[in-house]
Amino acid sequence: MRGVIVTSQFTSRRLQRIGLERNRIRVVLPGTDPVVQRANQLSTELPRLLVVGSLIPRKGHDVLIRALGTLGMQSWHCVCAGSLDRDRRFAEQIMTQAGEAGIGERVEFVGECNRSTLEQLYAGASIFVLPSYYEGYGMVLAEALAYGLPIVSTTGGAIPETVPAGAGILVAPGDHLALANA
Fold it and tell me: What does pTM read for this prediction?
């Protein structure tokens, strides 16, 4: 191979650690479309959390459900957008977990969305959450930032390089109590 294109400095450093020469790696950061206007959230509205990502183990939906289950009577609604079919057994497990935690009515699993629907979800959200164990970049984080959303995520992979300081709260991957506190 003559070269590799990666989406983050983090991934470049990982490839160098396994022996790929630095001069064979090019970092090209993904771009995001500018957002014309973000919906104004009224302080009286129910906080709307948005999670975008396939329901697969690496994305940490299990950690999210455990975290949300600890919030007691606090008001919130969470929308999880992303494929329910990539790991159907895991997706079903997560939906069951939400029901068993007593929060099934407050967590909405909408599946994959077209661009227009996804834009509406971002525009209507109060907080963007990505409980991922690992991201090589985190495109959905960049999209959430473009919408001006505060972010609650993890330090998994390139996330700390994708989310600027002051734009969110990052916790250790898998730590559902820290995620709930954030």
Answer: 0.86
Categorize the per-residue pLDDT at 33 as very low, low, confident or very high, splitting at 50, 70 and 90. Answer: confident
Neighbours of 36 (CB within 10 A): 7
Q: What is the rounded CA–CA span in Å between residue 161 and residue 9? A: 8
Per-residue three-class SS string for the chain:
CCCEEECCHHHHHHHHHCCCCHHHEEECCCCCCCCCCCCCCCCCCCCEEEEECCCCHHHCHHHHHHHHHCCCCCCCEEEEECCCCCCHHHHHHHHHHHHHCCCCCCEEEEECCCHHHHHHHHHHCCEEEECCCCECCCHHHHHHHHCCCCEEEECCECHHHHCCCCCEEEECCCCHHHHHHC
Length of the chain: 182
